[in-house]
């Protein structure tokens, strides 16, 4: 059955999901909800969405509601969506399911922990994206052969959990499960610190190297790949970093400790210690083959 899907937040993730859902046949009708009218119109012109509606009307018309806004906005929107679902079910509406696509999970889950309609919510983190934003950044196949983490699945009813799981597999993702607290801890280490490192390196280079041509002339692929994430949308990433602040600050402390060690060994001209640290770091290649 082709579902009606309401996507709240038609940016890179929302637009790419819309594209994937249509291509896979999972949904033939996509409703767009976005406070940025330009994003809504762009999504419709690109064929990502069939129409643009208010949040309440979108929830009313859809079988599945996907929240693809920045994570701080999701914390505000999710209780509202569950309130709409509760009211509509009292009026005889069919069951509806809501899932969020945020890259932090614990605070979002906490925002509806005691909500009477919590069982109709599924917490998801699709591990996919680029440094670009907006519906024009949507990519066909963005989620294909990527991982998705479904969090706290035991708190969702089986119908909601299975439907969202099926949706993720339909767009080509491999699904695994994790509780929201462990998710946020691990994602701080393997994702969020990469963005902070990229932002920090970009700021350091821009501060010390005033000649743009020197940057262009001397920048090699290593520099380009490291600072690529510094082009990421600040409006998206500031809420992620603050929401996951407890774990991210732990990671930053560990990162600073390692950077301080490198600095000390370089100052002391200690090649043997540098080689030992770098060879230890080489072990990551056994994981990321």
Write a structural description.
- Helix 3 (55-61) crosses helix 4 (71-90).
- The longest helix is centred in the C-terminal third of the chain and has 29 residues, at 180-208.
- This protein has an 8-stranded mixed sheet, sandwiched between helices.
- The chain has helices at 12-24, 37-45, 55-61, 71-90, 106-111, 158-170, 180-208, 212-218, 221-227, 234-243, 245-267, 271-281, and strands spanning 3-8, 27-33, 51-52, 64-67, 97-100, 121-126, 147-151, 174-178.
- It is elongated.
- The protein is α/β, with parallel strands linked by helices and 289 residues long.
- Helix 4 links the parallel strand 4 and strand 5 (97-100).
- It folds into 2 domains: 3-178, NAD(P)-binding Rossmann-like Domain (Rossmann fold); 183-286, 6-phosphogluconate dehydrogenase C-terminal fold.
- The mean pLDDT is 90.
- It starts with a strand and ends in an 8-residue tail after the last helix.
Question: TL;DR?
Answer:
The chain is of the alpha/beta class and 289 residues long. The chain is built from 12 helices and 8 strands. The chain has an 8-stranded mixed β-sheet, with helices on both faces.
Any descriptors?
8 strands, 289 residues, 13% strand, 6-phosphogluconate dehydrogenase C-terminal fold, Rossmann fold, alpha/beta, elongated, 8-stranded mixed β-sheet, 12 helices
Q: Provide the structure class.
A: alpha/beta
Q: What shape does the CA trace take?
A: elongated
Strand order of the largest sheet: 3-2-1-4-5-6-7-8
CATH class designation of the largest domain: Alpha Beta
Give the count of structural domains. Answer: 2
